[in-house]
Write a structure and sequence with these properties.
Length: 531
């Protein structure tokens, strides 16, 4: 059994034909975890096919094999398990499974189940009209009436599981991604060996054991700003020390104005004082500024030491902690110095959001709205219902927004094309943020940028008419600004745009929204037209 406190088993359950095996294989591949098909494990362990076990021992004999083999599987390395359709009818088995991992109960319409079962080569002894006296051949048709009876008998049982997903209209790949959103479990591929992302409430104190399981060694430095370090730094150091690490907390002043080379130098000094080695780990505890700074310091110290991101703000969870971008600002502009250097692990504990100021939650929603604009119309719809609806569904909104960014960065890890969609609202947003001397929060500036860029897309004939108004109304409902403050100097905004990394030949390249769920990248706009 795995000792990693963040690596629980993921069990797929549900009626025959709900896609447990196919979805389980896809989910395991997405998460870079082992896959166990319980029926296949039973056949391997018994030396008989499922049909032969039913024929010789009946359903009671099969259930004994099922219980025994499930216990064996749960002693192995944590992974994804496709369960038989009745495996958790046994109360002790259910209790053991739910104590060890998370269960997703899959379902589909009766017509979909029948269609899938009839196209499958696997025999379904309980669904044949032939009865136990003569179990069917693999090609025997499914008895629809018997399937209806089985579903009716088990309906309350299946409905008793907290996590449910109807995949009638979903492909296997879509089902696997939807399961990941429910679980808050991802593995980001495309940059080196990849790294795990987990959304897990109350997981912050488990970091020490998680790093130990992942083979981290040497001293550990927890890098944080003074505000977050005061709240959670000692808890994290104790967790690391309890796991056998030598740990030190290194703090610096909060705020974008300290995201500079001087702070990085101070972190390097802290790394030296702590005796960091090539096998050591830097833990970035805080918001996006902390992650950018600590990640860049780790990338450049000893030519690269491992780092882990523990985002403590909603903005960092849905955006800055994902993608491996690290960096610092120069006086001339944001993020002009940096490196692509992915973390070893991203651990988002939603419980820490309880200490986040309300204004920071509001500001972060600009990045969430952006994620909906890029690739998730349902997420945008959730956001459009207003602030109270967002607070009531914050956990789902967090996981859906993270899933969008992860899909984009996996498709384009080093921002050669598609990943530029993540710049929606940011080209103008960064310029506005800088012109305000960072008095505007990042999310507030991005909110203004999203509206202005949508209106720009409308003027260029790229966006659906009214898109800017739809985005504006959604952002207003979340308590965000949507207009450039009159006090801001437009020449300062132009100057910031002039230094934008995406500028080329007197034009600035934008990622412009064209409809909810689609952003078009690489749109060059003359500076004179922008403002």
């Amino acid at each position: 059994m795995s000792e990693d406190p963040l690596a629980s088993f993921f069990f797929l359950y549900g009626p025959p034909g709900s896609g447990k095996s196919a979805c389980g294989r896809a989910l395991a591949e997405n998460l870079a975890l082992p896959f166990y098909d319980l029926d296949q494990e039973i056949e391997t362990r018994s030396g008989k096919t499922i049909l032969e076990i039913f024929s010789s021992q009946g359903e009671p004999g099969f259930r004994e094999w099922e219980r025994a083999v499930l216990e064996e599987v749960m002693e192995r390395e944590a992974g994804v398990v496709a369960l038989g359709g009745g495996a958790l009818l046994d109360p002790p088995s259910r209790a053991r499974v739910e104590a060890l991992g998370q269960v997703i109960c899959l379902g589909a319409s009766l017509e979909t189940l029948v269609e899938r079962l009839e196209s499958s080569a696997s025999p379904r002894p309980l669904l044949s009209g032939e009865g136990p006296a003569r179990w069917p051949a693999p090609s025997a048709p499914v008895d629809k009436k018997r399937l209806e009876e089985l579903l009716a008998a088990r309906s309350a049982h299946y409905a008793s599981f907290a996590r449910q997903m109807d995949n009638s209209a979903l492909s296997v790949a879509e089902s696997a991604r939807a399961i990941q959103v429910q679980l808050g479990a991802f593995h980001v591929k495309g940059m080196g060996p990849g790294y795990d992302v987990r959304v897990s409430a109350g997981s912050l104190p488990a970091l020490g054991e998680a790093l130990k399981w992942r083979g981290s060694g040497g001293p550990v430095v927890v890098a944080s700003d003074e505000t977050v370090g005061r709240l959670y730094g000692s808890t994290l150091v104790r967790s690391l020390e309890a796991a056998g690490f030598t740990a030190r907390l290194a703090v610096f002043p909060p705020g974008e104005q300290h995201k500079n080379i001087e702070t990085v130098k101070n972190l390097w000094d802290a790394f030296l004082a702590a005796g960091l080695e090539r096998g050591s780990t830097v833990v970035a505890l805080g918001g996006g500024v902390v992650g950018d700074l600590a990640g860049f310091a780790a990338a450049s110290f000893l030519r690269g030491v491992a780092w882990v991101a523990l985002p403590t703000s909603l903005l960092a969870m849905v955006d800055a902690s994902l993608g491996g971008k690290t960096g610092i600002d120069l006086p001339q502009g944001k993020n002009l110095v940096g490196a692509f250097y992915p973390p070893r692990l991203v651990l988002a504990d939603p419980n820490v959001l309880a200490t986040l100021p309300e204004a920071e939650l509001h500001a972060a929603m600009a990045e969430v709205v952006k994620a909906g604009l890029i690739a998730d119309p349902h997420l945008f719809s959730l956001c459009s219902r207003g602030w109270q609806a967002v607070r009531a569904n914050l956990d789902e909104i967090l996981r859906r927004a993270m899933a969008v960014k992860i899909r984009v960065i996996e498709a384009d890890p080093y921002e050669q094309g598609l990943r530029a969609a993540l710049n929606a609202g940011h080209t103008l947003g960064h310029a506005i943020e800088q012109a305000s001397a960072y008095r505007l929060r990042h999310g507030e500036a991005v909110a203004i940028g999203l509206v202005r860029e949508a209106r720009l897309a409308e003027r260029l004939g790229l966006a659906q008419p009214g898109l800017g108004d739809e985005i504006r109304d959604t952002l207003l409902g979340l308590g965000l600004p949507v207009e450039i403050p009159a006090s801001l100097d437009k020449e300062a905004i132009r100057a910031a745009l002039h230094l934008d990394k995406k500028r080329r030949g007197g034009s600035v390249r934008f990622a412009l929204p064209v409809r909810i769920g689609e952003v078009r990248c690489g749109i060059e706009v003359a500076e004179a037209m922008i403002l």
